[in-house]
UniProtKB/TrEMBL annotation:
Organism superkingdom: Bacteria
Family from the record: Belongs to the YciB family.
Acetylation in keyword set: no
PANTHER family in the record: INNER MEMBRANE-SPANNING PROTEIN YCIB, INTRACELLULAR SEPTATION PROTEIN A-RELATED
Role of this protein: Plays a role in cell envelope biogenesis, maintenance of cell envelope integrity and membrane homeostasis.
Subcellular location: Cell inner membrane
Identification of the protein by name: Inner membrane-spanning protein YciB
Annotated keywords: Cell inner membrane, Cell membrane, Membrane, Transmembrane, Transmembrane helix
CC per GO annotation: plasma membrane
Main location: membrane
């Protein structure tokens, strides 16, 4: 299926909508307890149960409309289904809270494996978005590898030491802000190695 461009606002809504919906629904139901089939479920578990099919639908729509999915989107969806499903099935919110840890460890591991082979796997994913010289890609990949590992550790610290509500706020806004700030502070790489590639062309 050939890749297609879609309205950027629609694309953002499909990518970020489920996360924001999870956040709003959690704030609404966080203090509720629901009895289903003789078992009691917290609002968090119920919201997680709703989040899984929502992610499947929005990711499927994104795939249908654009004709492609990134590896990151595919991995994220699989982990949402697996760890979210375990949380609902076992009525244990810890599995879903571990999901960001697993995601970031996978990304850090893949980037680290590429670095050990002298390659930047990040370049294969983002080359069209950010043209950089090879040395720039290697530096950015090393930094991002360490950054993802740091986020994995931070997620573990937050969910194990703070309340569920604090973790939800952290997951919804803290992780997003951290990634945004990371790329903002990589301006030295973009300026130095982006210009070098343009000069070479």
């Amino acid at each position: 299926m050939a890749a297609r461009e879609i309205n950027p606002m629609l694309k953002s809504a499909l990518e970020l909508g489920p996360v924001l919906a999870f956040f709003v629904a959690y704030l609404w139901l966080k203090d509720e307890v629901f009895t289903i089939g003789g078992r009691e479920y917290s609002g968090f578990i119920l919201v997680t149960a709703g989040f899984i099919p929502l992610m499947i639908v929005t990711t499927g729509l994104l795939w249908k409309l654009t004709g492609k999915l990134s590896r990151m989107q595919a991995v994220t969806l699989v982990l949402v289904v697996v760890f979210g499903g375990l949380s609902v099935w076992l009525n244990d919110d810890r599995f879903f809270k571990m999901k960001p840890t697993i995601i970031y460890l996978i990304f850090a591991g893949l980037l680290g494996f590429g670095l050990l082979r002298g390659q930047s796997y990040l370049q294969h994913v983002m080359d069209e978005m950010m043209p950089l010289a090879p040395e720039g890609w290697m530096k950015l990949t090393r930094r991002l590898c360490l950054f993802f590992f740091g986020l994995a550790v931070l997620n573990e610290v937050i969910w194990r030491s703070m309340s569920t509500e604090s973790w939800v706020w952290f997951k919804t806004f803290g992780l997003t802000a951290a990634v945004f700030l990371f790329f903002i502070f990589q301006g030295d790489i973009f300026r130095k190695y982006g210009e070098q590639e343009q000069e070479g062309e």
